[in-house]
Amino acid sequence: METSVNYAASLLAAAEELPFLRELVALFALSAALTYLSHRFKLVPIVGFLFAGVLAGPYALGIVTDREFIANTAEIGVILLLFTIGVEFSLEKLARIRRYIIVGGGFQVGLTLGIVAAVLVVLGVDWRAAVFTASLVALSSTAIVLKLLSDRGITDTPAGQITLGVLIFQDLMVVPLVLFMPILGAAGGSAVDIGLALLESILIVTLVLVLARRTVPWLLDRVADARSPELFLLTVVVICFGIAWLTNLGGVSLALGAFLAGLVVSGSRFREHAVGEIIPLRTIFNALFFVSIGMLLDIRAVLAQPLLLLAVALSALLLKFTVTGAGVLLLRYPVAIAVPVALYLAQIGEFSLILHQVGNGFGLSPAGLGAAGDQAFLAVAVLLMMATPFVVQLEPRLRGMISRARPESAAAEQAGVRKLTDHVIIGGFGLAGRQIQRLLHDFGIPHLIVDMNPVSVLEAEAAGLPVIYGDLSQTHILHQAGIERARLVVAAVNDPTVLARVVHRAKLANPAVEIIVRTPYVMDVEGLHEAGAHVVVSEEVESALRLVEKVLFACGIHAEEAERQVARIRAEIEGI
């Protein structure tokens, strides 16, 4: 009994020696609870992390009051986030969308930087603070936007690919911007000083990269031979913090050092292994950083001047929306593609928060306003990040307004739509849509293509196919496609929310029309049936059944028995 009491006393003493442990437990518990609520309300987890930080911080519930702990937590989060980005860096990926990156991303970042900096200088802000502030505004949230694109299944659409290209350019710009922070801050001086500081940083970075590229592959080879996942993960973490520490000794920021460490690992043949080991920790990385950012936000500062902060947030949103949309138009894409891209990229992102942390270390603050500028920036950034999931929901309405203003009726006349009757409307001219169109043509069945991808539309027009550029989920596009006279609508688009609108509005326009849709996920099948679809084909189900069939054949099961089992499984799934 006495031993148990002594053991309990020793545990309590240990807990007192680690005062931050209580705060850390409370922090992650609150993060988990708010992330659950975010999931229930279909928000990205980052919103939950930010809310958790705001509530737990010293300006709200006061669960965490140690400012040094908050600062260190944010710094660790920065290191881990940039290391993860560095590991996932892929030259092959960049090459495929290089035009979007260079033209779209360069235009967006460059013009935003120029406009914001020029306005602030005119208002009397020092040029260093103006450039620093403009850098914060120029970047968007990679984490939030990629999550939204993935959830909506539109990453591979033109809008998704352009958005990805701009985000990659922004992520790449973080590296030179981080390198430029000491030059803008207290370390800045004359042109000679700036040049020498830049040259010194480049030499240090080059030296670290050369040594690391010679050492890291050899080290990872030895570690991989041990065939121990734990050892490999620990080694990767040591590389991350070790290279960041070494570069920091030479005056380069920890954030840049972490990115370089990830870049070194990404160039080795163990890149995929490293990514696989790090992915399970990514949620903690994100939570660690975003919670710490939320803790820095002073609610009192927000409540003291809510209208001013709201006006600044709306100004930033409108500026980025306009500049990004103009960049997409520069790529010669239509307005209907520019609108969703601009909406997705209209917020201020996590790398802006990273730059803000780095810049603070060199005496920089937004608009040169010191602590007041810091709080105003954090409030605006957090507000815009939280609002992003709701802002992008405006996309269908804006696209509809723009579509109604476009002269599609003339294109519809040229396609001979008014002459079509008892025809098939094909929504989406991807792989599935092309095969369907080819078969309908071979059998002499009248049909019409509707697609939002301008490249696909141009290809269809060049082939002499009847096609309309537009969103099939919009009622006026359905009418232009002759929905009243159609026998069948086939929708093969990737976004389940768009599919639901297509089904609902097509049934309203023509209750007799038959509707067949393809959806990526089985979870959407029931809802699409309820909306009025006659047949719903789930890629998830069909690929699973195809896999089951192949496995049974490979195991020597008779073809008839294999087909019977596949039919049974299909019935079970469709009965769910």
Automatic annotation (TrEMBL):
Domain RCK N-terminal: from-to ranges: 421-537
Keyword Transmembrane belongs to the record: yes
Highest taxon above the source species: Bacteria
One BP annotation, GO: proton transmembrane transport
Annotated localization: Membrane
InterPro entries hit by this protein: Cation/H_exchanger_TM (IPR006153), Na+/solute_symporter_sf (IPR038770), NAD(P)-bd_dom_sf (IPR036291), RCK_N (IPR003148)
Protein's UniProt name: Sodium:proton exchanger
Organism per entry: Candidatus Kutchimonas denitrificans
